[in-house]
Amino acid sequence: STGDIMQAKPQVAAYINFFLTYVNEEVVDVGYFPASTTALNAAKAAWTVGMTSGGAEMTASGIMLPAVDPLSVSGEVVTAGSSTVFPLAERMAERFQDEGFAGNVTIDSIGSGAGFERFCVAGETDVANASRPIKDSEIESCQGIGREPIEFRVGTDALAVVVSAENDFLTNASLADLAAIFSTAETWADVNPDWPAEPILRYIPGTDSGTFDYFVEVVFEEDEEPILAASNLELSEDDNVLVQGILGSPYAIGFFGYAYYQENADALHILSVEGIEPNAENVDNASYPLARPLFIYSTGDIMQAKPQVAAYINFFLTYVNEEVVDVGYFPASEDALNLAKLSWLNANN
């Protein structure tokens, strides 16, 4: 069908909506096979775009949001959260302002958990930046102050486990190795007898960090006690502090977002995990064990009350793939980005 037909004839729009919603309950019984989830989601996205006024389009490369003119909006955009998302959010805010937005975009790098606290408890921010999905308890906190958070996937990070370039014995670690290195092992030789009998110096993100949460989830099966009980442990919400600590000794190790490794690649060495290098190919095919999504969150009410926030998120989703690699991360999949755009359309129409 066409967008014009569906908008002129609501019964056609309703029929196609009903068809897409329930087709998988009937298609096998009729004698055919279901479309893939990806294909069906694309069809639903096309329906939404067809029903959207304001210039949204469906192109060969996915959903194209209505054009936003940064010159046409003003006011404050207040964001806070993940230190990992911070470099990407900073880049997108700078471009938004470079292209004409005269207002201020505030970005506080305080960790995903602290960002959700400001967004869902204090209600102080318009956007929460996060390197992990929002927790059920945080959603409940948001709802408690009348906010329904909407998730926008904006990229992918390969969590980087790094040592100093002066470290000449460690190039790869299994997940079991990492569990020992970041908990009970006192010296490197405790993990592998071929490694030096030198104390392990550990530099990790603070407990408010989504990076900390993700590492604990994957390496320690969500039990943070072993890592927090480790000796020679320094925690910081400032990734640059972690970098400097690791640079200070060949026996230091830490982890943080890939962008912070890339900024210091001449002085740091990044480890393979389970023999898999953290590169674009292995992130895209999901084989790197420590790849994780990056998000921003807002609400429909905020975007409708503050056009500058809607414009900022539109701009972010429209142009993020032109900036994300240069910042030091990896693009979200086309499906994930289309879903984010679809969420924006649903919230703003």
Estimated structural class: alpha/beta
The CATH H-level homologous superfamily of the largest domain: Periplasmic binding protein-like II
Question: What count of domains describes the coordinates?
Answer: 3
**What oligomeric state do the depicted chains represent?**
single chain
Please tell me about this protein's structure.
The chain is an alpha/beta fold and 349 residues long. It has three domains: 3-64, no CATH class; 70-155 and 292-347, Periplasmic binding protein-like II (D-Maltodextrin-Binding Protein, domain 2), CATH 3.40.190.10; 160-284, Periplasmic binding protein-like II (D-Maltodextrin-Binding Protein, domain 2), CATH 3.40.190.10. Helix content is 45%, strand content 19%. The chain has 16 helices and 14 strands. It has helices at residues 3-8, 10-30, 37-50, 86-98, 112-120, 136-144, 175-181, 188-191, 210-219, 225-228, 239-247, 258-263, 280-284, 300-305, 307-327, 334-347; strands spanning 57-59, 62-64, 76-81, 104-109, 127-130, 150-158, 160-164, 172-173, 201-205, 233-236, 252-256, 268-270, 272-273, 291-298. Strands 4-3-5-14-6 form a five-stranded mixed β-sheet. Helix 2 (10-30) runs antiparallel to helix 3, helix 4 crosses helix 15 and helix 15 runs antiparallel to helix 16 (334-347). The longest helix has 21 residues, at 10-30. The radius of gyration is 23 Å and the shape is globular.
